[in-house]
Design brief:
single chain, 83% helix, transmembrane, membrane, EmrE-like, EamA_dom, EamA family transporter
Length: 282
Amino acid sequence: MSNRVSPGAVGLVLASCASLQLGGAVATHVFPHAGPWGVTTIRLLVAGLLLFAIARPAVRDWTRTQWVAVGLFAVTLAGMNGFYYAAIALIPLAPAVTIEFIGPLLLAALLSRGAREFLWVGLAAGGLALLGWDSWTGESLDPWGVTWALVAGAFWMGYILASRRVGELVPGQGGLAVAFLLAAAMVVPFGAGGVATILDSPGLLGLAVLTAVLASLIPYSFELVALRSLPPAVFGVLLALEPVFAALIGWVVLGQTASVALLVAVAMVVAASMGTTLTARR
């Protein structure tokens, strides 16, 4: 892989971040009718069906080891997506993404076992503490929304490990396609009522499909192309800007305001994520 940074690839990653958060913003308009788990089910199902049609994985030839890896990957996808949507149904996009980011930051520190990585986690924890203080003294964040964001972050940790394993064992995009479908099946018990509501309304179905395209297909496709020409460190730094895009999309699309304390907390978590990426041991 070339170490030269392609402006086009940078643009794809930034567009991916924007698309992901825009998809979340669209999803919030469906939550009052179908709930976050109903939207999650449709999103995973649509993304899985489209990707399966494109990848056409030879699942009959998969070994038990491959199926177990894909199954665990599906568990992390279901939890990460479902609990994140449960979070943004209760709290604004920016604090939800900022809180969720503690998961991959903590994983990076645990895997590296280096003191400086834990310092970055400490910086992120300081940002979360600032969020807590802002919630206590200003506009309160729903405790369940915060809890679901933390749970989503924990599943994000598992997603990082599981996706790496699937990438090693399953060629192409077949592993992701099947994992999407399995994840959709896993969340059906929680979202069945919402799915029925969505399928009964062409307008809601259109918004749900748009959510799947914006929050799953576009980000994954853009990042896959970008990774071919971007150094991993640059890619990681760009992804660290997701809380910024969450704050921007939340403000522009949903009219969600951000206090000074929230913006400082976002900056602290972004800095911690960038620092973790740039100082990671190779």
